[in-house]
Amino acid sequence: MHVKIADLDDPEVRKLIALHQQDALASSPPGYSFALDITGLQTPSITVLGAWENGVLIAIGAIKRLWDGQAEIKSMRTHPDHLRKGAARVILDGLATIARNEGIKRLSLETGTGEKYAPAQALYRDSGFSPGQAFADYSNGPHNQCWHKTLD
Fold first, then answer.
1. Gyration radius (Cα) of the chain, Å
2. Under a CB-based contact definition with an 8 Å cutoff, are residues 116 and 27 in contact?
3. Is the model's pTM score more than 0.85?
4. Strand arrangement of the beta sheet that strand 56-65 belongs to
5. Each residue of 1-18: b (16+ CB within 10 Å) or e?
6. pLDDT at 34
7. Residue 27: what pLDDT?
8. pLDDT for residue 10
């Protein structure tokens, strides 16, 4: 598996981002999907990583720099044909490495709370994240939860 910064002009990257946004909208109640489209990811404060296996894009994830040594994990998605290969963990580890290298002290994220999100929650828990207070413009509720990890 090869991980690198994703080119947002790459059609395969765009397809996986679109799949992520469509699925998030379909599986969340109105007003509870915060997945960014390609335009939302094309800002200087965001870096998108991709994981490729044998030349095929299998997963993406992004880091959005916030303020005062904080950043947010966004757009975590593994292509459905490539689940359970460890790609999400590799992406998450890569994003944490970027954060550490930039002096970021805290990573946060927002994810769903339903059964569909149980694998994501397990990944975040296993990677040192814990559920916690809302941050940025989010609020915790019955359909979403914010998670945080302090970086050393």
1. 14
2. yes
3. yes
4. 2-5, 46-53, 56-65, 70-78, 106-112, 144-150, 130-132
5. eebeebeeeeebbbebbe
6. 80
7. 76
8. 97
